[in-house]
Amino acid sequence: MLQIQPAGSAAKQRDSIQSTSFEQPLELLLSCHEKIIHFSSALYNIAIAVQQEGWDDNYALSADQIRRYFNIAGVEHHLDEEQHLFPAILALPDKNLDKKTEISTLIRRMIAEHDETDAQWLLLDTMLAQRSEDFITLEKLSRQFKADMHEHARIENKFIFPYARQYISSTEFKTMGLAIARRRHQ
């Protein structure tokens, strides 16, 4: 049976969710990246499995869990970055112009990649919902989606988030977290 929930005990997951709050939006985004990596990997594993064995109830249930994640949390994650984090970074004073230019370029790239992965996801979501038997295409698309999501998260984690952590004040992060919570109706 494929493990769809992120690894770890239920208590550990509860503690992680409780410690990652809107008061710490960068930690919330990092936590989302862990889930994005997990669920995109699980999707690829399902694609490989159904290619070999065909759809069964377990694979269908797992696919539906992944669909729920990307159709709800994935959308919110992109909005959190595009409407809150990225604008806050771009509004920072140009203390280190070369670094700010590099980060601004990466942010534009990340937004473009959001559009690309959203389009990839629409195709995958449709195939999963229909329990497509075009297994070769499902495997190919899920492999590319996994690779793209992993690389995207790596770049944000390695370059953009540390820059934000260095230059955005804790007060600004708290304000950002409140705005994210309001947008999400929390």
Topology (elements, then pairings):
Blueprint: H1 10-19, H2 25-53, H3 57-90, H4 97-129, H5 135-167, H6 170-183
Your description of this structure?
This protein has 186 residues and is an all-alpha fold. 82% of the residues lie in helices and 0% in strands. The radius of gyration is 18 Å and the shape is elongated.
Question: Which labels suit this protein?
Answer:
6 helices; mainly alpha; 186 residues
Give the amount of beta strand, in percent: under 5%
Main beta sheet: none
Spatial separation of the terminal alpha carbons? 34 Å
Residue windows where pLDDT falls under 50 for at least 5 positions: 7-19
Please provide the count of β strands. Answer: 0
Helix content: over 70%
Radius of gyration: 18 Å
Global shape:
elongated
Based on secondary structure, the structural category is mainly alpha
- Please give the count of helices: 6
> What's the pLDDT, averaged over the residues?
90
- Write down the secondary-structure element order: HHHHHH
Can you give me a brief rundown of this structure?
The chain is an all-alpha fold and 186 residues long.
